[in-house]
UniProtKB/TrEMBL annotation:
The protein's name in its UniProt record: Protein CreA
Keyword Signal belongs to the record: yes
Domain of life: Bacteria
Entry GO terms, CC: cytosol
Residues annotated as signal peptide: 1-21
KW Glycoprotein (keyword) present: no
UniProt source species: Atlantibacter subterraneus
Keyword terms of this UniProt record: Signal
Alphabetized InterPro entries for the sequence: Uncharacterised_CreA
Length: 160
């Protein structure tokens, strides 16, 4: 019993420690008489460990009374696009491959147990950063996912 309580506390702390995204905009998808409408939200965040990479996520956000109170569970639908916005410098940790599968973004999508995550991989052979977004739950996750790749090229150089 003590083990379950510690696990739950760790999960709650992990869910609350998220990297923040800036909301760019949203569109309503379903009108609700009470509470906010269901919508698709577009958010941007910068990779915390790779300077000059910005990712844009679009995700479903549940409205209604439950959604307005923060009690609704959002669907697992999300899309991602990441872009190089300046010269990229990789840390030694990323270059060495020790940062494979590192979570660079996390957003709670239900009251406690569900979250949307973005995980970064470094493809050394192709010199590219790969960003995978997916949704998971404590008990079961979703196979829905989206992927974006950022080739690492010298900034403003002609492509060969």
């Amino acid at each position: 019993m003590k083990y379950k309580a510690l696990t739950l506390a760790a999960l709650l702390m992990g869910v609350s420690i998220g990297l923040h995204a800036e909301e760019i905009g949203s569109v309503d998808t379903v009108f609700k008489w009470l509470g906010p409408d269901h919508k698709i939200v577009v958010e941007a965040f910068d990779d915390p460990d790779v300077q000059n990479v910005t990712c844009y996520i679009s995700r479903a956000k549940t409205g209604g009374i439950k959604g307005g109170l923060g009690l609704a569970e959002d669907t697992s639908d999300a899309a991602i696009s990441c872009q190089q916005v300046g010269p990229i410098t990789l840390s030694d940790k990323i270059k060495s491959g020790k940062a494979q599968g590192e979570v660079v973004f996390r957003k709670r999508t239900s009251l406690v147990f569900k979250k949307l995550q973005v995980v970064r991989f470094y493809d050394m052979k192709r010199n590219a950063l790969i960003y995978l977004t997916y949704s998971d739950k404590v008990v079961e996750g979703s196979p829905k996912n989206a992927l974006s790749a950022v080739p690492i090229m010298p900034w403003n150089s002609p492509q060969q």
